[in-house]
Amino acid sequence: MGKNSFFQFKQFRINQDQCAMKVCTDSCVLGAYTAISTATRILDIGTGTGLLALMLAQRTDSPIDAVEIDEAATQQARENVKNSPWSHQIKVIQQDILQFSQTTLLPYDLIVCNPPFFSNHLKRKHSTQNVAMHGEALQLPELAQVVSTLLASTGRFITLLPPYESSQLEKNCFDYGLYKYEELQLFDYIEGKQIRTINSFSFTKESTPQTKTLYIKTSVDGTYTDDFIQLLKPYYLNL
To answer: Given CB 3.0 to 4.6 Å as the disulfide criterion, which of 23, 27, 57, 161 pairs with 86?
Structure first.
């Protein structure tokens, strides 16, 4: 997934030729998994192609702000939003999220982010991929600080990272009074190793955070699992 210049969903299309980070399965899981029933004001940090904002807009009428620092990605996200059924609902903003957090007056009751990762891996030659994948524009402690500033007292922060980076962000969030209340462990296939973690945070400290698992495929070369199909069926054309 994600190598083509576009990705067609059931209700919208993602053009991605101007973005370093393409549509990928784990990001789609994040968009489909994030609960939005009580969200009245939503923020997508580092929107890239606009994928998460559009996936959430498909399930809610609430306004969504999508912030992106890269100019080319911002233009692509605006194009994708404009061509979607929710152009009136999503506002794409080109700005450093640190600056954005200092000027925004109203808090958000849902913040989603697929932040930079692979901080322990070799950097790629393409500079925009380094920004998107290695946290050169936004470090995890800064992300935790920004979220603590922008999140409403009863709000939720949902994020996706590899397991190591996820544990680091959990520590950073704790420093700002944000506590994990739910963890989804994402596996590429049954009996494979965990590839990503979707953590949910709030300002309320739970005694024991809930842990869930999701397997994308039945085996290395297998079919999608029933749980994955049920989750992504509203979005994927082939499900």
So the answer is: 57
